[in-house]
Amino acid sequence: MKQFITFLFSFSLTLFSAQTSLNLIPKFGTNPGNLEMYTFSDSLDSKVKAPLIVVLHGCSQTAEEIERIAGWGTLAGQHHFKLIFPQQKVSNNASRCFNWFKEDDISLKNGEAESILQMIDFAKTKMNIDTSKIFIVGYSAGAAMSVSLLAISPATFHSGVSYAGTAHGLAKSPGDALKVMNGKINPSQNELLALVNRGKMSFPSLIVYQGLDDNVVDPINADLLVKQWTGLLSIQANDCLKTSAYNSNELIEQVIYSNQKSNKKVIVYKIASLKHQIAIDPGTAESQGGTQSIFTKDVDFYSTYQIIRDFGL
């Protein structure tokens, strides 16, 4: 178990202390999941309704670090959207992983998922949010939690991003989680759909990022997530457009699966030579950004910027 806690969805155990412009919100609801909520400094001071992006960090990370290395605050200022950052506590998980493999934490009205939904409710009342444009982005364990939020509360979100994540509901325990991460669980599409309480709900679009050299989360998980989400959006596997060398970058493959009737999409970016890292492209051009760290890799592709483009921001 100790080894599992150490490596589960872990980028590293190293934490950085870089200063960023985040504000702690000490009281945002009943907070059954015992999480912390941070906002970007400009998010509370706005008289104009703006989109909201919820950003969930990976294991061993903090809200401040994911903001800094992915460059979220800079883009928020340039493109006029607001940010909130849920942060895990060591008392909940020793490696600061969101508990995506615990059923109580990925269920409505319970645990961590409910805490994050309460943060969004707080943002709606205190931050002048355009409620039709609420997005969620998660990295690693945060990606798995983001997918679960999209699955259990789909009406909340316009779209979401899973960055090195997993399909919803595959893991019910730490042991299951290891099997999922290692690519040892390979269910059919019907089995994946059965993990989601669909009812008559309409599900949001999804964007999937996966490094093809990821040695923490096997790339098969991206395929399973696509299989689950295209099923939820009633998209046939052949209803897709594949672009190799996306943006003239030989490392990037983009595949867009579309439901023309509903205008819902699943967009997939598979990145060669990328391990369990965030794709960045440091520089001063509009489409460049991100900070070099052990959690990132310069592949001449600034994925955070691409995310907000795909969100339509």
Task: Describe the protein in words.
It is a single chain. The chain has 313 residues and is of the alpha/beta class. The chain has a single domain (2-7, 22-310), classed as 3-Layer(aba) Sandwich (Rossmann fold). The protein has helices at 2-7, 63-70, 72-79, 111-126, 141-152, 174-181, 189-194, 220-232, 303-310; strands at 22-25, 36-40, 50-56, 82-87, 129-139, 159-163, 205-211, 240-243, 252-259, 264-271, 278-280, 296-298. The strands form 2 sheets. Strands 1-2-4-3-5-6-7-10-9-8 form a 10-stranded mixed β-sheet, with helices on both faces. Strand 9 and strand 10 form a beta hairpin. The protein is globular, with a radius of gyration of 18 Å. The N and C termini lie far apart (42 Å). The model is unreliable at 1-19 (pLDDT under 50).
Q: Specify Rg, calculated over alpha carbons.
A: 18 Å
Assembly level = single chain
What can be said about the biggest beta sheet? 10 strands, mixed
CATH class: Alpha Beta
Please identify which CATH superfamily we are dealing with: Alpha/Beta hydrolase fold, catalytic domain
Task: Compute the number of structural domains.
Answer: 1
Report the β-strand fraction as a percent range: 15-25%
What is the end-to-end distance? 42 Å
What's the count of strands?
A: 12
Overall spatial form = globular
Q: Roughly how much helix do the residues carry, as a percent range?
A: 25-40%
The CATH topology annotation reads as Rossmann fold
Q: Which strand order does the major sheet show?
A: 1-2-4-3-5-6-7-10-9-8
The CATH architecture is 3-Layer(aba) Sandwich
